[in-house]
């Protein structure tokens, strides 16, 4: 196999806003989704293993507000060659659903023609784990989810994936869609020289309209709330513990028979 191009995706959201309508993104520093960071690391490792003659290019894509460029620069500093930012307005972003992201990624895939798409297995805010599967369905590509090991030989890809009963190994032909699990690898840190080089790497910007993709949500979010706060524990007094122990202690009744034996 030659001329392998890998595309990786990451999107980050944060906490619930004061209106209880969506997640809060104002005045919050975004960071890479750890699952997507693993996807980036795996793409870089594949190039290191297979060589630049095989893995010709690694492309990072994110869909979100303008702040998403910060995470793309981090990906570029890790070793990604170039990046694409599909910019979503701050008003539309909270309504962006996994299907909308999958449609945007399909448009990028059809434009860029990668052989392999690697995504994190799930979001880190709502735990939605649907985008990779939806993208594979839209592209009609084979998929392997929750990957903990990945090997490429020629035009075949073998993936060890984590399932409830242990590990499952599957194989398919490229092109494919892969979603990553935590045990696939440990991402590297971006070095200062690479961070400086990342500023000069190309970062293209598109909108959903540029890609001719309708991201209108099919779902309406009625309310978004935080989980209830757990009550703190208390330390009872010794007398209280003693009384509770006595009140909860089981009671027994015995019939005792005395036998007078004369020898």
From TrEMBL:
GO terms for molecular function: electron transfer activity. Keywords: Electron transport, Mitochondrion, Transport. SUPFAM superfamilies: Adenine nucleotide alpha hydrolases-like. It is found in: Mitochondrion matrix. Residues 224-248 are annotated as: Disordered. Its main location: mitochondrion. One of its GO terms (biological process) is fatty acid beta-oxidation using acyl-CoA dehydrogenase. Residues 20-215 form the Electron transfer flavoprotein alpha/beta-subunit N-terminal domain. Binds 1 AMP per subunit. Binds 1 FAD per dimer. Gene3D superfamilies: HUPs. Its cofactor is AMP; FAD. Pfam families: ETF. It comes from the Eukaryota. GO terms for cellular component: mitochondrial matrix. SMART domains: ETF. Belongs to the ETF beta-subunit/FixA family. Heterodimer of an alpha and a beta subunit. The electron transfer flavoprotein serves as a specific electron acceptor for several dehydrogenases, including five acyl-CoA dehydrogenases, glutaryl-CoA and sarcosine dehydrogenase. It transfers the electrons to the main mitochondrial respiratory chain via ETF-ubiquinone oxidoreductase (ETF dehydrogenase). This is Probable electron transfer flavoprotein subunit beta. The lineage of its organism: Eukaryota, Fungi, Fungi incertae sedis, Mucoromycota, Glomeromycotina.
């Amino acid at each position: 196999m030659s001329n392998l191009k890998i595309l990786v995706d990451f999107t980050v959201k944060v906490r619930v806003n004061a209106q209880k309508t969506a997640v809060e993104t104002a005045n919050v520093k975004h960071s890479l989704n750890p699952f997507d960071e693993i996807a980036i690391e795996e793409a870089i490792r594949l190039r290191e293993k297979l060589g630049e003659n095989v893995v010709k290019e690694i492309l990072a894509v994110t869909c979100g507000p303008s702040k998403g460029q910060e995470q793309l620069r981090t990906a570029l500093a890790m070793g990604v060659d170039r990046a694409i930012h599909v910019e979503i307005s701050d008003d539309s972003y909270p309504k962006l659903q996994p299907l909308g992201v999958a449609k945007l990624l399909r448009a990028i895939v059809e434009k860029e023609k990668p052989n392999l798409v690697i995504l994190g297995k799930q979001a880190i805010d709502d735990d939605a784990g649907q985008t990779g599967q939806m993208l594979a369905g839209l592209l009609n590509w084979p998929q392997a989810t929750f990957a903990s090991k990945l090997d490429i030989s020629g035009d075949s890809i073998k993936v060890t994936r984590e399932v409830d009963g242990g590990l499952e190994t599957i194989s398919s032909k490229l092109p494919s869609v892969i979603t990553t699990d935590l045990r696939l690898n440990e991402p590297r840190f971006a070095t200062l020289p690479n961070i400086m080089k990342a500023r000069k790497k190309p970062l293209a910007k598109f909108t959903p309209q540029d890609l001719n993709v309708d991201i209108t949500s099919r779902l309406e979010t009625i309310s978004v709330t935080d989980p209830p706060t757990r009550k703190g524990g208390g330390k009872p007094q010794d007398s209280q513990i003693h009384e509770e122990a006595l009140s909860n202690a089981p009671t027994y009744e015995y019939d005792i028979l005395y036998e007078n034996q004369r020898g």
